[in-house]
Amino acid sequence: MKRITLVLLTAVALLGGALAPATPTLADDGKQTLTGLFDSGYQDKVRPLRAVFTPTGERTWDVVFYFKFNGRDHEYKGVAEGGLLEGTLSGRVENEGGRRNFTFKGEFKKGTFKGDHFETTRGREEKTGSLTLKG
Predict the structure, then answer these.
(1) Are 103 and 120 in contact (CB under 8 A)?
(2) 63-66 long-range Cβ contacts below 8 angstroms, 24+ apart
(3) Quick check: 83 and 97 in contact, CB under 8 A?
(4) Which of 120, 126, 124, 118 has the alpha carbon at shortest distance from 38?
(5) Which residues are 100's β-sheet partners?
(6) CATH architecture, range 25-134
(7) The pTM is what?
(8) What does R_g of the chain's alpha carbons equal in angstroms?
(9) Where are the alpha helices (DSSP H) in the chain?
(10) Per residue in 86-123, pLDDT tens?
(11) 8-state DSSP, 23
(12) Domain ranges (residues) in the chain
């Protein structure tokens, strides 16, 4: 009887682990890739977006946004602060030549980030669109 009880308890424990919701995991190098869409507010087009976050500390990240705009590939690089699953996330990136700076800010809810991006022009932020990201 003890052996049957042990087998049943082991089976229940294993089954419970198999049914537990999957938790997102980081790559071996700590990078987290999120994908989504961004609306640049230009020509009413929503475009695919990929963001790679590399941890630099607790809730701080280097970030690279990869996307196409006007038929060209772009990589905007910068930094971000916040969580990648829940809560707020914000950051600052610049274009390839470093001539244009953008900020972004928003919030994760149930694993999906929804936020806005802003271009810094003449010392003030102007909203230039929105973005969504998901792991």
Answers:
(1) yes
(2) 63/91, 63/93, 65/93
(3) no
(4) 118
(5) none
(6) Beta Barrel (2.40)
(7) 0.76
(8) 20
(9) 2-19
(10) 999 999 999 998 888 899 999 999 889 999 999 887 77
(11) P
(12) 25-134
Taking a C-beta distance cutoff of 8 angstroms, is the pair 4, 10 a contact?
no
Whole-angstrom distance, CA of residue 104 vs CA of residue 63 = 12
Greater model confidence, 75 or 17: 75
Contact 86, 108 (CB under 8 A): yes
Which distant-in-sequence residues (6+ apart) come within 8 Å of 64 by Cβ? 51, 52, 75, 76, 77
Main-chain phi, psi angles of 4, to 5 degrees: -65, -45
How far is 75 from 33, CA to CA, in rounded Å? 14
What pLDDT score was predicted for residue 44?
67
Q: Rounded to whole angstroms, how far apart are CA atoms 84 and 25?
A: 11
Q: What is the pLDDT of residues 13-33, one digit of tens each?
A: 333 333 333 334 445 578 999
| Residue 75 confidence class, pLDDT cut points 50, 70, 90 | very high
Q: What letter represents residue 6's amino acid?
A: L
Select the more confidently predicted residue: 42 or 70: 70
How many helices, marked H, and strands, marked E, lie in the chain?
Answer: 1, 8
User: Taking the mean position of all CA atoms in its chain, how far away is CA 113?
Assistant: 7
Going by the DSSP 8-state scheme, the letter that residue 70 receives in this structure is T
